[in-house]
Amino acid sequence: MRPRVGLPMIAAMSTGVFARGSWSRPLSIGGLAILILVEISTVQGTHPPEVDFVGTVTATALVAVVWILLISGRQPERGSAMAAMFVTLLGAGSVALVVFSPRGAAIIAAIIALSAAANRFDRRAGVGFAIVLIAAFLAATAYKLGLQPIALLGYALGLMFSYLATRSVAELRNEQARTQGLVMELRASRDAQVEAAALNERSRIAREIHDVLAHTLAALAVQLEASRVMLEQRHGDPEALAAVDRAHRLAKEGLDETRRAVSALRGDQVPGPEQLRQLVTDFRHDSGTDATLEVEGTTRPLPPESALAVYRTAQEALTNIRRHAHAERVQVVLRYDARGTELEVTDAGQPAVPGPVGGFGLMGMRERAELLGGTLDAGPVEGGFTVRLRLPA
After folding, report:
1. Environment class of 148 (CB within 10 Å of its CB; exposed 0-12, middle 13-18, buried 19+)
2. CA distance linking residue 317 with residue 354, whole number of Å
3. d(Cα 141, Cα 155) in Å, to the nearest integer?
4. Band of the pLDDT at 214, cuts 50, 70, 90?
């Protein structure tokens, strides 16, 4: 009577191959179930004299318990002393099954032990364990069943193939994990290169702005200051003096804005809602128009792009009011709520004529808002004109 190694052996080999894959637990439990069923059938069937009931039950329970511990969520780390002890117990259980139940499913227990060794030992330790276990298994099989060398060779080849197949799959899985790690590193490196290229381009644009616009505005500010001094010394027309003084102040503001733009391109801190109060104060001082700022809701930090959009929109709206409207009163309201952030700039008086003032105008403000997932509405209201910015931040 030959040991039954057909379907049980195939199932156990599948358990070994997938011992650490996504189907590890179902396949492992299935392999153990087959092992236990075969042993029960062996013990309760023909009752050959060489079968030891107590030894068979003990060895089967040992293999089942140790294997379940290995595939549980608290399995020992690979290469640890605990893993070595568990794998050794599995090997001992498989050899014990040969001794107590030579015509049972000991081959399945041996394959389970070899799969555990392939997954939890390094190459040298795993090969050494496999050689020792296969030798002990063949010796016990030859002693109990008296098989011929050719049959023992078949057992040896089958067990070694099981170990090598499981080891190959484990190494393939480890190589796949390393490849995925390298791919993630490559993506991170590529993103860093893209970011570095963007920073270089922004730095180049910042240099161009600084070299052209900032230098021009600086020279213009110097010339206007000189003109103002000349008018004062020669007792010029007061209105002309006031106009030159206002032009000088605007040139200085333009120079400050250019420096802020250069700082933003270089990644420095950008203006945001914190500067709105000073912006309204400067507008009130320059235009002579009554202007107020109200903040509703609990203030919170905004992303840099959103903070800059709030500031630029308020700046553009106030500039349009100063240059194109005859406003009697201006109200700036900044609201924070659960839906996002809202900025509302309303002037009471003759509505402003929208235009590309400051280089962007209403179209530029609307494009800036849409890029951030928000909206910008601008239009006349009863007794004035309103610009309303809504951002999801």
Report:
1. exposed
2. 9
3. 9
4. low
Same domain? For 186 and 130 the reply is no
How far apart, in Å, are the Cα atoms of 160 and each of 51, 78, 117, 121, 302? 26, 21, 12, 15, 63
Q: Which residues contact 110 (CB under 8 A, 6 or more apart)?
A: 91, 94, 95, 133, 134, 137, 159
In a domain, 320, yes or no: yes
Pick the closest to residue 354 from 343, 344, 363 (CA basis): 363
pLDDT in tens, 95-114: 888 888 777 778 888 888 88
Q: How many CB atoms lie within 10 A of CB 51?
A: 19
Tell whether 244 and 364 lie within a shared domain. no
Compute the distance between CA of residue 116 and CA of residue 174 in angstroms, rounded to an integer.
15
Asked if 352 and 379 count as a contact pair (C-beta separation under 8 A), the reply is no
Residues 67, 110 within the same domain: yes
DSSP code, position 212: I
Q: Which two tokens stand for residue 146?
A: 């008296």
b/e sequence 359-374, b meaning 16+ C-beta within 10 Å: ebbbebbbebbeebeb
Helix (H, G, I), strand (E, B) or coil at 3: coil
Residues 18-39: tens digit of each pLDDT: 444 445 566 666 666 777 777 7
What range does the domain containing 343 cover?
270-391
Residue whose C-alpha is closest to residue 4's, from 33, 49, 42: 42
Q: Is 314 exposed, middle or buried (0-12, 13-18, 19+ CB in 10 A)?
A: buried
Please name which of 92, 121, 95, 119 lies closest in space to residue 107, comparing C-alpha atoms: 95
Q: For 45, list phi and psi in degrees, rounded to 5.
A: -85, -100
Of 252, 248, 389, whose CA–CA distance to 316 is shortest? 389
Give the count of domains, the chain.
Answer: 3
- Chain centroid to CA 316: 37
3-state secondary structure of 80: coil
Query: Are residue 126 and residue 26 in the same domain, yes or no?
Result: yes
In this structure, the answer to whether residues 230 and 303 fall within a common structural domain is: no
Specify whether 69 is located in the same domain as 14.
yes
